[in-house]
Amino acid sequence: MEHPPVTVILPVLDEVAHIDDVMADLTWQDYEGPYEVIVADGGSTDGTLEKLAVIAEQDDRVRVIDNPDVRQAFGLNRAAAEAKGRILVRADGHTRFAPDYVRRSVEALGETGGAVGGRMSPTGRTPFGRAVMAAMRSPLTMGPGRFHHATEREQVDTVYLGAFDREAFEELNGFRPFPSGTSEDADFYYRWRASGRKVFVDPSIDSTYTPRDTPRSLWRQYFRYGQGKAEMLWLNGELPSLRPLAPLILVLGLLAGLILGAGSGVWWPIVVILGGWALLLIWVAVRSEASPVLALVAAGVMHLAYGMGMVWGLIRGPGPVRDLRT
Asked: What is the CA radius of gyration of the chain?
């Protein structure tokens, strides 16, 4: 079909600051085929539900459903179960979408035959948010993942959000809800590729992501990201890529250096590790278009929180994810 029916699936929780813009983007798409937007709300108490009720009343393409389990993997699966579309397009409450986002996604799906998605392109609204944006654009902070840096369509291991065939999604039993509340997409694309399918990033599928705008919220987010990768390792027996090992090695090196220094008085290893890490952070900061000091803090928080989250996830063991095995 040239214009197959599409369902946009969107999990939200307390997104009152963003929901008007996000829903305006998703309902003003230039896609010529039929499409709907199903929003799974995890129990918002900040006015998000009231705004969604008004939007749904004015636009019959929008449906709002409950997600009593809160985590976005549950919400995405519930929205997909209600979908009428042949194609599922995942959306996010912290993201702005270009008017051709759905159309470009469907076109790329037709041309590649695999799951597709655009780059994760951050944009900050506050001084610290802009510092996070700058840090996220650096390979020294985020690693070489192509869904951050690709300039043309290419095959990858994972993408930001993404679009995929609903029947294939159902064959894989959808997203698996990790205890961390993260990594469901990395795990989904890992299983997608393991089934013999392909994943492509296409920069023409354009969206912009609004990162966390305080050090505390950024720390919590990246700690959970690291924990999620450890959960994936326990569940699948391997990581989807080697990228998560860098922050893990940093944290383990710092811990080993502290133990060595405290136990034997040999401090030079941790001095070397801290010095090398400081040089890397300074390089990110001086090349940043945002405040160098804030960019240094943002990159440092992301590295440490991610690594410590992985350590915590590994210490917890496989018990929390054992029930997710299929």
From this structure: 20
